[in-house]
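Why AsmA family protein? Reviewers of the renewal asked for a concrete example.
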Amino acid sequence: MRVLAKLFASLVIITFVVLGALLIVLNTNYGLPLVQKAVSTLTPYSLRANSLDYNFLAPLSLSLNEPELIELETENTIYQAGYVSVALSLWDSLDGSLSLQSAVVRRAKINLADKAALPASLLIKHLALDDVAYQSNTFAFDHADIQVSNWRNTHDKWGSWQGQFQLSAPSLSIDGQTLSNLLLDSEVIDGTWEIWGLSFNSEFGNITGSATVEDRKVMLHQLTLSDARIEPSRNLSNLTAMWGSLSEDYDIAIKRLDLLDVSASVDDFTLEHLNLSAQSVNLLNGELAWAANDASSLLSFNANLINFDKWLLTDVLAEMSLSPSRIEVGAFSSKIDGEGYISFAGDMTPASLSLRSLVLNGLSLELESGLSKTLSAQWERFDNIRVGSLSIRHTNVTVPNPEFPLQVIGLNLKGKDLLLRQASHNGMWRGQLTCSAKAASINRIPVSSPYAAMSVEDGLWQLDPLSLTFQQGQLAAKASVDFSSPSRQWHFEGTGLSLPTSLYSRWLGLNLPLEGEHDLTVRISALGGDTDSLAYSLTGDLKATPHRTVMQVNDGESFGQSLMMLFSKKLEGAEHVDFPVNVGEVVIAADRGRIGLAPTSLEQGGTLSTLSGQWDLVSGEGNLSHTNQ
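Here is what the prediction returned.
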């Protein structure tokens, strides 16, 4: 037993002596040949290097300058670098695996195909690649610095690692996209990749951000795009395709997104100097999605110019909050077409639109059929529409409808506490509103200085006054409707001097082919709940004194026949003949739906005649009678 102990002690002493001798040799000029001999003896490779650096105080570390690893059989260079330094982790290598405490490689060209030549069990606790290059069909960089913690040589393309991953590169190319001044500070822990900081410059702007990537989910804590100039190009198409593929493969949540001084010009959309900040933006399967628990997405932005289709907005400013159930606009303002101005604030839900304020100033709006239908469809989406404060000034409105053209010049509206749609029914259900304009043309009848004031209080809508000035005359009227009652009792009264007679056919749609002017006094009332209520309740009287009346009759039709066809639909496309007619005072009285036209004298071509009539709205029966004198 004593002999065995002595033998073991001798072996230990000899081992230490040999190791000591080797370490001493490594610290001399014979160190490099010794390492080269060991590599060629123990591996199928030979080693070349300019020099070897070794410090006796760090016995498990050595460095090689300009090393080159060559395969003995083919004499092909496997690895080549400007500098390599390695430090062995002795205790981690006792199980037979190769574990390095650290490895530093400088000025090397990475070739992933040669990764298989490395020991399969290789573990590097801290790997630093300085001034290295890599190139493939889709990915390339040069003069890059990379630091990785706990790197293992696995079957994965780049191996695997746990811990810190840092990258800096003056230039990097991905699928034709060139990124410059790239900096990445990140860490991988148990399958979660924490990107503490990422920044780079590209042809589309400068990017900075931080993120967490886990199980095909990306949480962008912060993403900033600055100084961007975006125009159509092949690279933009490729980038859009890359983003589309990424957003479909990963669920992306953006806690904060900032766009700083971004300009774009694509297709029919132009944007100049946009600054935007958004919070809680989510993409699910490539589509915008709302955050969980009905969380709000905050959005604020300003831009010098936004040009979309026919709309030109300048000095745009907006602040809003978006959620699945509500869009709250804290403020929105913009100049339109260089002269107009719009500003509004309010809330929108799927069923209601509530604006705290709406200001329009100096606009020129042409509501052609397509735009009018779009606005009408959007309006009818809401069950209720409210406007707390309305101010429209110096605005021109054109509706180029061939059947009922409308043009208003210098429109001014001022409203307060308005309820314009209630339970999917349009109307003015509450509030106060005044309306005026410089001039208007309503279905080809010119009107100057129109004015109207209306209010609703306790369900009673009142129009007082309504003033319309025509080329030869003027109309003053007032009206009321009781919305608090299901019967909708209404009342109208007005007086006019030299009113255009054509307004009955052009405004009210009556088949009354008369031109000229007339003086008017009218007072009528009825119940407006439904058609039957109107038929049973219409009561009032109308007195008119016509002047310079001209009647349009069908070609080949006598004047008497035309009189009997008043209020009847005329043949479309038929030729008309104008007959000057002297008409006496017209008196029409209505009593609970029974309407009577008092005998009215007419003179045409020296012939005197009388026209009278009776109608019953309840039964729908009625007739006109004509007698010659």
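The first helix runs from residue 2 to 26. This is the kind of structural detail the renewal will allow us to pursue systematically.
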